[in-house]
Amino acid sequence: AYKHMLDGKKKSSAIKERICLLNEIGFVWVVEHSGKWFNMFEELKKYKETHGNCAVPVKCPSHKHLALWVQKQRRQYREMKKGRSTQMTAERSDLLNGLGFVWKVYEDNWHEMLDDLRKYKERHGDCLVPQVYAPNPPLGRWVQTQRIAYKSKLDGKRSSLKKSAFFY
């Protein structure tokens, strides 16, 4: 009810009166949990020192809490970019950027696979990665996925594939 009134969606003299009474006694409307955020940020810094990146896997039981926090930061960042109310701030996103935080995991993974494909081409002279490729199984699956996407005329990444001389 308070939120609707503050947003201008609901008008009520009783609610206005209650807000005034709470304001008079110094009621805190927004509680910052920045201490907890900075603790998690420090934990992420330690993780990066050990693992070399901020990509905390959810499947790892010892880092599950941190992985969930990392996912939450990505969600909040997207919300902030859309202009929605969120706990993410420019200061927080700057701190995460300073660590090399990856906001779009899929994009980052895609580019890593493209780099792997370039290395494959350097070694083999082509981009004909077998679907089952023992030295790098994800690469074989990824190449197949790119071919399917290309045939389905999905745009976006296709121009990068053409530049890398991706052949069928």
UniProtKB/TrEMBL annotation:
Chain ranges of the Helicase-associated domain: 35-101, 107-158
Q: Which residues form a coiled coil?
A: none
Record Pfam families: HA (PF03457)
User: What protein name is recorded for this chain?
Assistant: Helicase-associated domain-containing protein
Q: Which organism is it from?
A: Ditylum brightwellii
State the organism's lineage.
Eukaryota, Sar, Stramenopiles, Ochrophyta, Bacillariophyta
